[in-house]
User: Fold this.
Amino acid sequence: MRGRNRDVRHQPVHHPLFARSYARLAPLADERAGLGALRDELLTGLTGRVIEIGAGSGLNFARYPRQVAEVVAIEPESHLRRLAVTAALRAHVPVDVVPARAEALPVKSEAFDAVVTALVLCSVQDLRRSLRELRRVLRPGGELRFLEHGRARGRAMALTQRALDRTVWPALCGGCHTSRDIVAEVRRAGFEIDTHRRLRVPERGLPLPTSSCVLGVARRLTLPVDGERPGATDDDGGPPPAQDQD
Ligand SMILES: C[S@@+](CC[C@H](N)C(=O)[O-])C[C@H]1O[C@@H](n2cnc3c(N)ncnc32)[C@H](O)[C@@H]1O
Assistant:
């Protein structure tokens, strides 16, 4: 890593406590809050080359359909990445786990048929830059599949989310923000939303700041978006992938 560069693309993602508790709790949430079934829906019908962003401990890997030729799984956090490497061995498709962050993907432009994000766009430090990168690496017409939590539609919860995001939540939850308007940001980044469904997770019980979820498919528009030069990468000159130390 280039030593003094404070550009977000070169900063490590280091949330050791969060990473450990997430690794323990996420399988329970898959089972008890219905996230496992939503992951299946997220991935169904995928084919070709896929890049998964912020793969965590690899909970999606065993769920990829066999028609997927290859998954490049980006994970910047070292503990989760080690778990992801083990999970990759149990997948039915080849999964290559790569240390990098969404803001600077170390892959060629237009190299993938699909990009997958699950509960990640809340945590990336620079959402707009990340979405530009996701768009860059997708072939024209390629799909962005997303399962994300975001801004609640009720006023009281939306205010609560904003307050949490400005105070304790990101520090406690590995950089997570609860109030991002994911669908609006995806559109703004040059995707057309094919389908999306608003969900409450878990379906029953008291709503949590992360309960407003969306499961969707967006397609990369072929026309350049504001300020984009056709064919240019987000980072001409190519940064080294940001990574933390194992
Ligand atoms: C809540 S976890 C979700 C993990 C996994 N996608 C899942 O569904 O279980 C958020 C993930 O985003 C990753 N992350 C945080 N900042 C990131 C960034 N800038 N680029 C890519 N991934 C990031 C974290 O390391 C973590 O693995």
